[in-house]
Structures are given as structure tokens and as C-alpha cells.
UniProtKB/TrEMBL annotation:
UniProt superkingdom: Bacteria
Family under the similarity heading: Belongs to the GatC family.
InterPro entries assigned: Asp/Glu-ADT_sf_sub_c, GatC
Cleaved signal peptide residues: none
UniProt-listed Enzyme Commission number(s): 6.3.5.-
Name of this chain's protein: Aspartyl/glutamyl-tRNA(Asn/Gln) amidotransferase subunit C
Swiss-Prot/TrEMBL keywords: ATP-binding, Ligase, Nucleotide-binding, Protein biosynthesis
Gene encoding the protein: gatC
Subunit note: Heterotrimer of A, B and C subunits.
Length: 106
């Protein structure tokens, strides 16, 4: 399709220390013995992403679905939901059709 040449960057390899840092930043507790496996999996993910970069998408329009369709849109109207009994059914306490909350300011 195109006459341009894409530069192919080398696939980044994740080492154990980078995997440890990524787990820390994501607030995920990873045991020391599992860091090598995590590093391998993250490197594999980066490899898949690199494969996606090789696909020529020139002239391809972005899409939100594989089949053309329009989403149903309801009217943008403010309502109370017309079901106050159901809404208040699970409330810890309700008074006069509203949620009752403890007083927090004297």
C-alpha cells in the first residue's frame, strides 16, 4: 500500500529489577521467586505490542465495533426514577422518602 519503510525498534526486554519496580508501582505484591516469571510475561506482552506496530493501518478508519451500529440513546431528561420504594429499600434508615444520615456537624 505505501512506499514508506517503518523503522523496526528492538523489542524491549524486561529484567527482574524492572518487573519488581512495575509490581511496586502497581501496588501488587509479587514474591521474589515469581519475579523472573513476571519479567518473562511482561517481555512477551511488549513483543505482542511490537507485532501490532508492524501492521500497516494507513487509510483504515477508526471504529468502535466490528459491525456498524448506532447505540440506543435515551432522552436526556431529569427524573426521580419513579421507584423510590425500591431505591430506599436497602437504606439503613429513611425518613419522609429520603435517605437519613447521622448528623456529623454540631
Amino acid at each position: 500500500m505505501g512506499d514508506h519503510v517503518k523503522c523496526k525498534a528492538p523489542v524491549m526486554s524486561i529484567d527482574k529489577e524492572t518487573a519488581r519496580r512495575a509490581a511496586h508501582l502497581a501496588r501488587i505484591a509479587v514474591p521474589e521467586e515469581d519475579l523472573d516469571v513476571l519479567a518473562t510475561e511482561l517481555s512477551g506482552i511488549l513483543g505482542f505490542m511490537e507485532q501490532l506496530n508492524e501492521v500497516d493501518v494507513d487509510g483504515v478508519e477508526p471504529m468502535t465495533s466490528v459491525s456498524p451500529m448506532s447505540l440506543y440513546r435515551r432522552a436526556d431528561v431529569v427524573t426521580d426514577g419513579n421507584q423510590p420504594e425500591k431505591i430506599l429499600k436497602n437504606a439503613p434508615e429513611a425518613r419522609e422518602g429520603f435517605f437519613a444520615v447521622p448528623k456529623v456537624v454540631e
